[in-house]
Fold this protein.
Amino acid sequence: MVTHMHVGFRVADFERWKAGYDASIEHRKAAGEVSYQVFRSVDDPNVVTVVSVQASADRVHAFLDSPELKEGMKKAGIVEMGTMLLLEEVDRGTL
């Protein structure tokens, strides 16, 4: 089943974080990431939210536990983790 990941955090500098995030694309893809969206707060550009589609919850958990991810987050300047949600879609519509 497809899993959606929603994670928010604060970074020291958005451009520095974004460069690190972009550089991690192959690692994220290998971990099962299918697509992503990056958002930042209109009130504080260093508050970031990433919403992604993942191949499975098991692969997300393995990725989140990886030393590579933890080191990459540190290098990219994540200073505060917010809420992380792993979600399964149960409904969709267009209005």
